[in-house]
């Protein structure tokens, strides 16, 4: 700021508001306009009259303006980010995420239960929505990263969420509306729409949920010894290979036998640092399986222990959506999938034979036979699903 100083004299009665040093009374001019102000004798802070349009350019005031500018810029960036955020339609979510949301909302967002529009995660996060807590936490982090689960404000981050999604026919869908649509997809035997894009999406979720059940089993078993254990990528790949030829119940038996052997040998560590217990278990299971194949052992089947609570996600997927019972645990997954897949495949590709529309309603439905009516052209077709 270019000011021509006309006169400067010390004013002992005035103190700098920043450092409390004595101030000068200054008379100056700028472009023939006169100015009077105080200037600190120590930090050069200037105090102008309230009607003056001049700003102080001392080191402290400059830093303060720079900070305010940065904060304003950050706020504008956040506002623009909120505007640019993608808001997903419920139908765009993956099959696994839809399944998790129904597990979360089914007992909460009901007409006969008092609830608000926030998911109070802090109060419910230890309930058995999924087979194990680490898997549950992973899904929540995924939904949070996608912007589907959002905190009402930063102070409630990780404690409360609201559902940031769209739903056809609703400008701002309630939790009950979302839950009701999910119930239609998962509980009505595919007659009110499907929650998946392809049968492979369902198959992947089936393998993943059964694998998480296996992880829950070994964690439950090790907890009695105060020993930590968890899944890993390598262990998951190994379990998937086992599930190609063995039932989950047979894998339970192998894990129980291997864990008891390792515990008696005092090989298991209290903490699972660097997956030491997981890797020991995997190596032992590999040896068991190799001998079983070489020597033609018949692996025993351990039924799913009833003292391990079945998660809401497993209950919905296995018993409600796929229509299975505990037999899913005592036969290889491929055998169960062979019975499940034809109907899912039919519904994922169904089209009107007359106009090609996939906007069809179910008029009549049995286990092997379906009658569909096209909403567009009203044409009716009859299909065998097996």
Give an overview in words:
By secondary structure, the chain is α+β, with helices and mostly antiparallel strands. About 45% of the residues lie in helices and about 15% in strands. The protein is built from 11 helices and 11 strands. The chain has helices at about 60-85, 95-105, 120-125, 135-145, 175-185, 200-225, 235-245, 250-265, 275-295, 310-320, 335-350, and strands at about 5-15, 20-30, 35-40, 45, 90, 150, 160-165, 165, 360-365, 370-375, 380-385. The strands form 4 sheets. Strands 1-2-3-4 form a 4-stranded antiparallel beta sheet, with no helix packed on it. Strand 9 (about 360-365) and strand 10 (about 370-375) form a beta hairpin. Helix 2 packs across helix 5, helix 2 packs across helix 10 (about 310-320) and helix 6 (about 200-225) packs parallel to helix 8. The longest helix has 26 residues, at about 60-85. It is elongated and about 105 Å long. About 25% of the residues are buried.
Give a brief outline of the structure.
By secondary structure, this protein is an alpha+beta fold. It has eleven helices and eleven strands. The strands form four sheets. The chain has a four-stranded antiparallel sheet with strand order 1-2-3-4, with no helix packed on it.
Shape: elongated
Average pLDDT rating: 87
Note the quaternary state here: single chain
Rounded to the nearest angstrom, the distance between the terminal CA atoms is 85 Å
């Amino acid at each position: 700021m270019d000011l021509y100083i006309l006169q400067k004299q010390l004013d002992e009665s005035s103190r700098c508001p920043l450092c409390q040093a004595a101030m000068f009374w200054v008379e100056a001019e700028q472009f023939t306009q006169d100015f009077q102000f105080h200037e600190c004798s120590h930090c050069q802070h200037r105090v102008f009259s309230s009607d003056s349009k001049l700003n102080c350019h001392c080191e402290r005031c400059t830093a303060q303006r720079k900070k305010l500018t940065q904060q304003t810029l950050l706020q504008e960036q956040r506002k623009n980010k909120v505007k640019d955020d993608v808001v997903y339609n419920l139908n765009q979510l993956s099959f696994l995420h839809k399944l998790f949301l129904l597990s979360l909302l089914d007992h909460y967002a009901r007409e006969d239960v008092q609830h608000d529009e926030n998911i109070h995660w802090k109060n419910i996060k230890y309930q058995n929505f999924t087979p194990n807590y680490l898997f549950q936490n992973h899904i929540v982090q995924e939904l949070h990263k996608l912007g589907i689960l959002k905190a009402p404000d930063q102070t409630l981050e990780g404690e409360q969420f609201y559902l940031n999604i769209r739903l056809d026919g609703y400008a701002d869908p309630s939790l009950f509306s979302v839950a009701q649509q999910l119930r239609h997809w998962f509980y009505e035997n595919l007659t009110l729409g499907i929650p998946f894009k392809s049968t492979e999406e369902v198959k992947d979720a089936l393998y993943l949920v059964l694998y998480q059940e296996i992880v829950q089993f070994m964690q439950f078993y090790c907890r009695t010894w105060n020993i930590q254990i968890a899944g890993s990528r390598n262990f998951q790949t190994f379990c998937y290979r086992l599930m190609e030829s063995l039932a989950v119940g047979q894998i339970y038996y192998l894990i129980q036998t291997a864990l008891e052997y390792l515990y008696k040998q005092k090989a298991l560590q209290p903490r699972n640092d660097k997956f030491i217990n997981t890797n020991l278990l995997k190596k032992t299971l590999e040896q068991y399986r190799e001998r079983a194949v070489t020597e033609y052992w018949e692996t025993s089947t351990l039924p799913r222990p009833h003292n391990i609570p079945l998660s809401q996600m497993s209950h919905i997927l296995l018993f409600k959506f796929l229509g299975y019972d505990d037999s899913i645990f005592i036969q290889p997954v491929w055998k169960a999938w062979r019975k499940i897949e034809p109907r899912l495949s039919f519904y994922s590709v169904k089209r009107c034979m007359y106009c090609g529309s996939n906007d069809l309603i179910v008029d009549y439905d049995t286990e092997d036979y379906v009658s569909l009516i096209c909403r567009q052209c009203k044409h009716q077709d009859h299909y065998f699903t097996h």
